[in-house]
Amino acid sequence: MIEVLVSEKLVVRVPCAVIEHNGKVLAGQRSPALSFPLKWEFPGGKAEKNESDEEALLREIREELNVEVEIIHKLPVTSKDQGWREIILVPFVCRLNSYQITLTEHEQILWLKPKELPSLDWTEADLNVIENYYEYLSTK
Ligand SMILES: Nc1nc2c([nH]c(=O)n2[C@H]2C[C@H](O)[C@@H](COP(=O)(O)OP(=O)(O)OP(=O)(O)O)O2)c(=O)[nH]1
């Protein structure tokens, strides 16, 4: 995991995936046992030492969903200040390359049309990701 102290604050880099398939997007609900319990997120997780954002993303998606994805587009980085640490979300639009999903960490997943995404209770940082995803869709 890469954790950098900047001005006494821990900065954590978290690549995450906006996975598209058949016009829908995958949303994952966090486990009740984790931080941000039961909030919705884009699958991904903290990068490890010496890992690029892309490598970390592909590894996390394999670990959490047991599928392969292909990166299509990098969305703007967004951050969430938690007081004691700052989470830097690095979102990538991805497509599925294998289709048999097995959940190892999430409580559940949902496939939603892009316009349906705001109906879920997302982590705060993800609201920016959704806005940036809409912006990306509008330019396609
Ligand atoms: N994967 C992912 N994490 C997110 C999103 N939004 C958001 O605030 N986060 C936060 C939740 C976690 O604190 C962190 C990702 O950490 P992680 O998934 O590798 O591990 P974790 O739940 O055990 O993390 P932690 O909070 O206990 O340190 O980023 C998101 O869309 N996707």
Automatic annotation (TrEMBL):
It catalyses: 8-oxo-dGTP + H2O = 8-oxo-dGMP + diphosphate + H(+); 8-oxo-GTP + H2O = 8-oxo-GMP + diphosphate + H(+). It comes from the Bacteria. InterPro entries: MutT-like (IPR047127), Nudix_hydrolase (IPR020476), NUDIX_hydrolase-like_dom_sf (IPR015797), NUDIX_hydrolase_CS (IPR020084), NUDIX_hydrolase_dom (IPR000086). Belongs to the Nudix hydrolase family. Residues 9-134 form the Nudix hydrolase domain. Pfam families: NUDIX. Its cofactor is Mg(2+). Transmembrane segments: none annotated. Its EC number is 3.6.1.55. Keywords: DNA damage, DNA repair, DNA replication, Hydrolase, Magnesium, Metal-binding, Mutator protein. It comes from Dyadobacter arcticus. One of its GO terms (molecular function) is 8-oxo-7,8-dihydrodeoxyguanosine triphosphate pyrophosphatase activity. This is 8-oxo-dGTP diphosphatase. The lineage of its organism: Bacteria, Pseudomonadati, Bacteroidota, Cytophagia, Cytophagales. Coiled coil: none annotated. It is an enzyme of class 3 (hydrolase).
